[in-house]
Amino acid sequence: MAVKLNIKNLGILEHQKAYDLQLEIMQKRINDEIEDTLLIVEHPPVFTIGTSGSRENIRVGSDFLNDAGIEVYKTNRGGDITYHGPGQLVIYPILNLKNHKKDLHWLLRSYEEVFIELLKEFDINGWRIDGLTGVWVGNEKITAIGVAVRRWVSYHGCAFNISPNLEHFSYIVPCGITDKGVTSLEKLLGQKVETEAVIEILIKKFTEVFKMEVINYER
């Protein structure tokens, strides 16, 4: 039987506000007050530093970041540093893994599978690189992934590049990886892609991979 899923499309929302909302929903999920929930959002420009990262992977100074309008946050997800900004689709799946599989490696691979399947809809071959988390096209990352769990309820999630300002990635060492690049769907296709169209495909692939049924979609 399919696991039930609520979806909330938050539009553009500051990273801290989205994080606070994650914690609120996660606690309700732990208490079994709500079903699994998928948050979909875009953030204003921000660098987030995970538990294995540091500010040393920011290549520019604070004044430069202020002028560029990019904030910096330390966060408790796994992974190193990444960038979020307009044109990047971020999902925060808040899932009770007791109803799925209590295995973080399985969770990461399943997230990757969602975006590999999504890219197939655009005739793009996304793939995994051994030892690295995320989805790649050639030698360039298109989906960054970082997760955390509390009492087997997941939070944080995935960032998929539709049409972000790729120059912003040059201000950091993305995910602490020095010998790989970053790409976007728009760059690969050479044309503009509507975010809503991508969201529609994303939801379809997410529910297929995780064997879920959408019971409510709040925009």
TrEMBL record:
SUPFAM superfamilies: Class II aaRS and biotin synthetases. It comes from the Bacteria. GO terms for cellular component: cytoplasm. GO terms for biological process: protein lipoylation. GO terms for molecular function: ligase activity; lipoyl(octanoyl) transferase activity. Residues 32-214 form the BPL/LPL catalytic domain. InterPro entries: aa-tRNA-synth_II/BPL/LPL, BPL_LPL_catalytic, Octanoyltransferase, Octanoyltransferase_CS. Keywords: Acyltransferase, Cytoplasm, Ligase, Transferase. The record marks K141 as: Lowers pKa of active site Cys. Catalyzes the transfer of endogenously produced octanoic acid from octanoyl-acyl-carrier-protein onto the lipoyl domains of lipoate-dependent enzymes. Lipoyl-ACP can also act as a substrate although octanoyl-ACP is likely to be the physiological substrate. Belongs to the LipB family. PANTHER family: LIPOYLTRANSFERASE 2, MITOCHONDRIAL-RELATED, OCTANOYLTRANSFERASE. This is Octanoyltransferase. It comes from Halanaerobium hydrogeniformans (Halanaerobium sp. (strain sapolanicus)). The lineage of its organism: Bacteria, Bacillati, Bacillota, Clostridia, Halanaerobiales. The gene is lipB.
